[in-house]
Each structure stands twice: as C-alpha cells, then as structure tokens.
C-alpha cells in the first residue's frame, strides 16, 4: 500500500513537472505551424522570397533567438530546418545558443549581471561562428523551401484542412509526443539527486567539461537546471557549465526526431553539438 501511494506521488510530481516544462512551448509550436501552413498554401508568397534571401544570415539571427527564448525556439527550429526555412548552420547555431532555464534561474538566484552577460556573449559569438562555418561548408547546396514532407511525416492530410486546423493538428501531435518523452526523462532524473550528480564533477576540470558536454545532450530542461544550480552552489566552474549548455538543445532533439525519425541524422547533429561543446568548454577555461 505504501509503495503504491509512493509511486502515485512520484507519477503526479513528474507529470506536473513535465507539464510545467512544456506548457510554454505550445504557443511556439502553434505559431510556427501557423506560419508554415500559411507558407505552404501561399505558393507565391512574398514572405517565401524574403526568407530565401535572408537565410544566409540565419546563424546570426538563430543564435539570438536561441539565447532569448530558452529552449522555445530550439524546439521549433527543427520544423524550420525540415522545411528548409532555415539552414543546417542556423539549426546548429540555435541549439548551441539555447540555454533552457539557465538565464531565468541565474537572475532569480542573484548571479552577478557581469557573469551572466559574459556567458551569454560567449555562447552567442561561438554559436554564430560555428553556424556560419557549417553553412560555408554547405554553401553549394541549394536551399529550396519544402512543406509536403512535414505533412507526410505527421500524416495529417493538411490539404483537406484550413490553415488554422492543420496548425492545430500538428501542434497537438507534437505536444503529446514531447510530453511523453519528457515524462520518461523526468522520471529518471527524479531518482537522481543533485548530490549524486555533483559527484560526477569531483574530477579534473578537463574531465568535468567532457562529462558536462555529454550530460547536456540529454534532451530535457532538467539537465540545464541541474548544471546551473551546481554552478551557483560553487560545485561546477564556468567552463563545464558552458560545455553542458552548448550541447543542450533542450527538447529540440526530441522534436527533430519526431519530425524526421532518422537515427543517422540525429547522431550527426548530436555529434556536432558534443564536439562543439567540448571545444567551447575548453576555450572557456582560458577566457574565464
């Protein structure tokens, strides 16, 4: 009886935590799909032409959007990437810049504004540089907007629905999927106390950067919160914190897998984020 009651409390706690993690993402999802559905239906839209002309600057705008929106824009960037609204370099820039709950948590805990600014500035500059570098490497690839693949993956029969209804269907499908994955991840993290996590970093600085970059790949907001709390408590230095925040795209990787369940593609993106996180973390050792 006690076990059943305890399990019930855990389920309720994890459910509420998961709902809190993703509820603010729903407006991002809906507005994104509303825009994509509009672009799909408006074949000769001027907005399409504007997007295709300005996406060469995508990594710059993507990095700023990623840093300011927590993991909100990171969650919807996969939609933009799949439909070629943004480039591959922009997608990586968004994920590298995204910091989940780091910014509001640091502000609420009274971390010095100078330190917050330095971390944010480093992540933006690094994300922009990597994003442009990747796009330069892929510069010969033609960037053509495509929307049919998005509807094909969701199997939503968008052609028979209005723009609003199609956007709503996509939003509901993605929200349910993200909730399910985040619920599983939060259940695991529920049984890993912060004190246990802190023991992983009781090692040399170089090893701490590697571990943090690896943990950052876990697509859950709880990881960024844990890393930030460890930094605030003085257990974690700034270089592993930056490494973990660089590799952590929040639920962005979950959304990407939902839209395009290609393991090779996911491993490629995860590998790029991990390597970039290591490089960024080691650079931070010399700068901070």
Summary of the model, kept short:
By secondary structure, the chain is mostly helical. The chain is built from 16 helices and no strands.
What does this structure look like?
- The chain is mainly alpha-helical.
- The chain has one domain.
- 76% of the residues lie in helices and 0% in strands.
- It is built from 16 helices and no strands.
- Helix 2 runs antiparallel to helix 10 and helix 4 packs antiparallel against helix 8.
- The radius of gyration is 19 Å and the shape is globular.
* CA distance, first residue to last residue: 53 Å
Residue ranges: pLDDT <50 for 5 or more in a row? none
Helix content: over 70%
- Tell me the Rg in angstroms: 19 Å
Number of helical regions: 16
Q: State mean pLDDT (0 to 100 scale).
A: 81
The counted number of beta strands is 0
Describe the global form: globular
What order do the helices and strands follow? HHHHHHHHHHHHHHHH
Largest sheet: none
Number of domains: 1
Give the strand content: under 5%
Helix/strand/pairing category? mainly alpha
